[in-house]
Amino acid sequence: MSKRISLVAHDTRKKDLVEWAVFNQKQLIEHELICTGSTGRLIREALGESAHITALKSGPLGGDQQMGALIADNKIDLLIFLWEPMEPQPHDVDVKALLRLSTVYNIPMACNLATADFLISSPLFDSDYEPKRRDYSDYLNRKL
Known about the structure:
- It contains seven helices and five strands.
- The chain is α/β, with parallel strands linked by helices.
- It has one domain (about 5-140): Rossmann fold (3-Layer(aba) Sandwich).
- The chain has a five-stranded parallel sheet, with helices on both faces.
- Strand 2, helix 3 and strand 3 form a beta-alpha-beta unit.
- The termini are far apart.
């Protein structure tokens, strides 16, 4: 079962994500990798042309929002987002929106390498797992 895996990393975390992807190349090569801008370029350079990689725009230039739209359209199965907690981000609201959408649509999400390791080593990673989606019809049908 091929999954659509989102890989996103802030500048100070790109090296960590690339190293993780190389270490897990054997598992990742079977899946579609969807990355924001320069992260996608770095992952492609590290994994080679055999990897199926889609690169969106750079995060601050709209890539985070493109990724959010893919999540909202159920076109992302898993998000690995290594963000930098120790530095302010000029597009922090976009980062928070991406994390919020991942929670709303109940997709597995890793914000650190330990969680990413747990996700990729889970028996569910290679299964036909479909996360339960919360029903928001009450919210959508509320009277304003």
